[in-house]
Amino acid sequence: MRIVCVSTPGGRELFASDLGHGEDPHVAVWQHGLSLTRPLYASRDGEEIVLTVQGAPHSHGQVRLRRPRGLDPDLQTDPDEVPVVRQRVAAYGIITSSRGLLATQFSDRTHVPGQWGLPGGGVDPGEEPARTVVREAWEETGQQVELGELVAVQSDHWIGRAPNGVLEDFHAVRLVYSGHCPDPIDPVVHDVGGTTAAAQWVPTDSWRRVWWTAGARSLLDKNL
């Protein structure tokens, strides 16, 4: 992934750089003497995804910061086992309708079975991030959705085992969009046997009663 920081939407470029493995986009911008004020859009340029953000100068200097890498608490490894380095860019949607907020439940193929998150998933090769959300919303919930703005960027970095048992040094970058479903129907999971166990419409006035993942709850606290 590549980050381009501009002064205003359509304004002058302040800097552009590749996002290093494990590097949080907010930290990457900070290291250039800027604060990430808001994400603007994400698009594909050939094999690369380009994230354009708006930035403003801060007064703290170019301090070298890096969010700590996590480690699965129950992780067991062999002495000679080397983790596979992997950076995964995914896109998700905060989708609302007359029936509430669209939520997906993680299956036992994930590390958080039973918890709830937002529809979305990994960006396929050659796919625009916004298209990923539309595709995943249909596969995971059966809904036809319309996307709005890019509203948030999240990043996590940890060492742990993938569902297939492979030890990974994993860097997750999540692009989060607002969205709307004009004709909501009863949710149905089309991608049976995947990472989604169920889907539901959650009333927007009681969304906090749902057992969300920490990342999803943080996003909803700020954007719903």
Give the tags:
single chain; 224 residues; Nucleoside Triphosphate Pyrophosphohydrolase; four-stranded mixed sheet; 44% strand
Instruction: Quickly name the level 1 CATH class of the largest domain.
Output: Alpha Beta
List SSEs in N-to-C order: EEHEEEEEEEHEEEH
Number of domains: 2
What is the typical, i.e. mean, pLDDT? 92
What spatial form do the alpha-carbon principal axes imply? globular
Structural class comes to mainly beta
Helix content: 10-25%
CATH architecture of the largest domain: Alpha-Beta Complex
Percent strand equals 35-45%
Structure description:
The chain is 13% helix and 44% strand. With 224 residues, the protein is mainly beta. It folds into two domains: 1-55, no CATH class; 81-219, Nucleoside Triphosphate Pyrophosphohydrolase, CATH 3.90.79.10. The strands form two sheets. Strands 5, 6, 7, 8, 9, 10, 11 and 12 form an eight-stranded mixed beta sheet that branches. A four-stranded mixed beta sheet has the order 2-1-4-3. One of its GO terms (molecular function) is hydrolase activity.
Per-chain topology:
Blueprint: E1 2-6, E2 13-18, H1 25-30, E3 34-45, E4 48-57, E5 70-71, E6 84-97, E7 100-106, E8 116-117, E9 120-122, H2 129-141, E10 146-161, E11 167-180, E12 196-202, H3 214-223
Parallel strand pairs: 1-4, 5-10, 6-11
Antiparallel strand pairs: 1-2, 3-4, 6-7, 6-9, 7-8, 7-12, 10-11
Domain Nudix hydrolase: 85-224
InterPro entries: Nudix_hydrolase, NUDIX_hydrolase-like_dom_sf, NUDIX_hydrolase_CS, NUDIX_hydrolase_dom
Keywords: Hydrolase
